[in-house]
């Protein structure tokens, strides 16, 4: 995995060449967001190799909140 530029126990941020990828974990949910689509795809592949995951597409609701 790439070096971590910034992280906490529940989030991870990676940025290169002015692009960013953010991973947020909340209980058993994971949000991947950012404008670095290549890094987001790499993260999804890495997670899928270790865990059973399902890509639910664009985020619409999270923790009872509607995301616009």
Word description of this protein:
There is one protein chain. The protein is α+β, with helices and mostly antiparallel strands. It has one domain. It is built from one helix and six strands, in the order ββββαββ. It has one helix at 37-50, and strands spanning 6-7, 11-16, 19-26, 29-34, 61-62, 65-66. The strands form two sheets. A four-stranded antiparallel β-sheet has the order 1-2-3-4, covered by helices on one side. A two-stranded antiparallel ribbon has the order 5-6. The longest helix has 14 residues, at 37-50. It is globular. 7% of the residues are buried. The model has no long low-confidence stretch (mean pLDDT 86).
In short:
Helix content is 21%, strand content 38%. It is built from 1 helix and 6 strands; from the N terminus they run E-E-E-E-H-E-E.
């Amino acid at each position: 995995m790439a070096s971590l530029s910034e992280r906490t126990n529940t989030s991870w941020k990676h940025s290169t060449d002015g692009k960013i990828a953010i991973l947020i974990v909340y209980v058993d949910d994971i949000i991947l967001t950012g404008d670095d689509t290549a890094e987001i795809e790499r993260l999804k592949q890495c997670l899928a190799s270790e865990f059973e995951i399902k890509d639910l597409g664009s985020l619409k609701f999270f923790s009872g909140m509607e995301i616009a």
